[in-house]
Amino acid sequence: MASLRFALAQFDFPVGAVAANAAKVGDLLAQAREGGASLVAFPELALSGYPPEDLLLRPSFLVACQCELNALAGATNGIAALVGHPHSEGEVYNAASLLRHGIIELTTHKQALPNYGVFDDKRYFRPGSDSAVALIDGVRVGMIICEDIWEPEPAAKAAAAGAELIVVINASPWDDAKQTGREDVLTARALETGCAIAYVNMVGGQDEVVYDGASILVNGDGSIAARAPSFVDAMLWAEFDSETRTLRADNWPTVPDASYEATLYAALVRGIRDYIEKNGFPGVLLGLSGGIDSALTLALAVDALGADRVTAVMMPTRYTSQLSLDGARAQAEQVGVDYHIINIEPMVDAFIGALTPAFAGKTADTTEENLQSRTRGVTLMALSNKHGRLLLATGNKSEMAVGYATLYGDMCGAYAPLKDVYKTVVYRLSRWRNAHAARLGEPEAIPSAVIDRPPSAELRDNQTDQDSLPPYDELDAILARFIEGEESQAEITAQGYHADTVRRVVRLVLLNEFKRRQSAPGPRVTTRAFGRERRYPITSGWK
User: Fold this and answer.
1) Binding-site residues for ATP
2) Is the domain covering 261-465+513-517 a CATH 3.40.50.620 domain?
3) Check: CATH 3.60.110.10 for 3-250?
4) Where, by residue number, does deamido-NAD(+) bind (predicted)?
5) Calpha distance 361→356 (Å, rounded)
6) Which residues belong to the active site?
């Protein structure tokens, strides 16, 4: 009988920050050694960050990763470290190396290369062929990489080579259906092989993907021994018993609320924080309209960065209601952000006055409405330029899907936190955030009046979103079936939705691909996000 004490490094390793990532690996390696671990495992491509994309085509980048790996190997006396990195030997591989006794003892290559959704591994990597196994403290430890665990063969190869415990290093992005799928796969692999499985995942935001951590320990009988929290950076200590092939977590952190809303909110907060901080911006700016989308975006930004790094701007016209003015001011004062009111009516009038001769003979239409939105976009971009704060766009997935947004207007922004969040979920998150505040004995983060009011762009008198769109409950259900479910119009109609409504919604989705191509990036939190994952042609005869 043998036992193994080991650690899983559930941390963020930013893309391209090779020297900084290596330094973090070194610090955590030392911490694991001091904590009595014989092995510490780091996430997939920890040295390069994931996904490094076309950085992998630069020889100097690959050389830098190898140099740092060589240096780290020299610091492993007394402990073994499993480190993810790109490996070039004529071809480029997604690799994991076991560093021990001051050397790179072995290197294994990822065998299953995902090429779906957000993944593009086959563009950059060649597949490996074997699973590595090493003896550590009398325990035979198999080592595989991320997608390898989603297919039976790599784990079976490790078991055939004598593995008792399989360590899987991952950079697996979060979406609202991911964790259940992960656990099902891990349970299946454990039952197939009889091996216990330690699954360590990266944490952090990288452009449009967010990694949640949520590392897992699975016993040899397929039962879950421990779950780490999502979006929490942590060194996770564990013990493995080879006789029973069971795992025990040693004082893993927990979170008080693991609900869907709490986890999604944490994903959006992490996405904002990492995008801003990794790109070196001092803070953010957003237009605060008095509506629910901008109100939720403001709450997220403050939770991500702190009130002192957030600026909110109300830009009223004659169509802006008192409810909007009051709601925006109340929220800005409550959360304590820098707040400005800039009346854009004179600017809109100037635009219309200048354009009137060219508009001769044309009746007023959405052009004049869009001028208001585009004036706001110009104003916000000017403030962003002057103060160096990155502009957040506040549109949601429902709007992006059907094009209910103004190009170069409210679509202005460098990052869109709600881009992959349906409107109905915006309401759920807003109510959850206020309930969370109530549990903490704090005032509501979003005024209830803003949540309860009918949604409106306020670009003309008595306007509501439902003048132009189906009710959001109906719209979002159709969109989810068409986008995430890839259902046909006939299949959606068969579920009880009116054929004319389905036809209209689908037409709007297909018609507005050109707008989405010009929209800001935002965190992917569903299984079919626009841009990074769902890629349709702009010019298409398929309707």
Assistant:
1) 287-294, 394
2) yes
3) yes
4) 370, 399, 515
5) 10
6) 44, 110, 146
